[in-house]
Amino acid sequence: MHNLPAWLNKYTDSLSKEKLHHAYLFYGRGGLGKRNLLNGIGEAILCENSKLVSCGKCKACKLIISGNHPDLHTVQIQEGKKNLSISQIISLREKIYEFSFLGQNKVISISNIESMSRDASDAILKILEEPPKDTFFVMSTNFIH
């Protein structure tokens, strides 16, 4: 998370790798850097470093940099669609209930959760109620309600 803008550090400084909750939701108006924050936290959770900071050198960090980390799942609105769909959440659910490929944590990053369809929202809530072991959700929204 060393490459985050300074104003986002207040969010990461209060987190500890030993005491992570399974889900985090960040809100704020568009353009503040929430996606960068989600990426930074996700990278730090997957990094082999014992602190909540990505080292950029371990196997996990190299996989993230190359865009090929098998335990990092990003859910975004598909091109040509208006909402995150139930089919995307079903596909995600199939992946996250499997064992971690690298034997450690899994991270699910979802930006703009307010854009989920009603069915997708219900499905993600069920997953959040009983999350798989060592699975962390980092999510953002532009609206507090």
Arithmetic mean of pLDDT: 87
What's the main sheet like? 4 strands, parallel
Q: Give the termini distance in whole angstroms.
A: 28 Å
Query: Order of SSEs, N→C?
Result: HEHHEHEHE
Total helical segments: 5
Low-confidence stretches: none
For the record, what is the CATH homologous superfamily label?
Answer: P-loop containing nucleotide triphosphate hydrolases
Q: How would the global form be characterised?
A: globular
Classified by CATH, the class is Alpha Beta
What Rg do the Cα atoms give? 15 Å
Classify the secondary structure makeup into a structural class. alpha/beta
Beta-strand content: 5-15%
State the domain count: 1
| Strand element count | 4
CATH fold group: Rossmann fold
From the 3D coordinates, which CATH architecture would you assign? 3-Layer(aba) Sandwich
Helix content: 25-40%
In short:
The protein is of the alpha/beta class.
Would you give an account of this structure?
The chain is an alpha/beta fold. It has one domain (21-141): 3-Layer(aba) Sandwich (Rossmann fold), CATH 3.40.50.300. It is built from five helices and four strands; from the N terminus they run αβααβαβαβ. It has a four-stranded parallel beta sheet, with helices on both faces. The radius of gyration is 15 Å and the shape is globular. The chain starts with 8 loop residues before the first helix and ends with a strand.
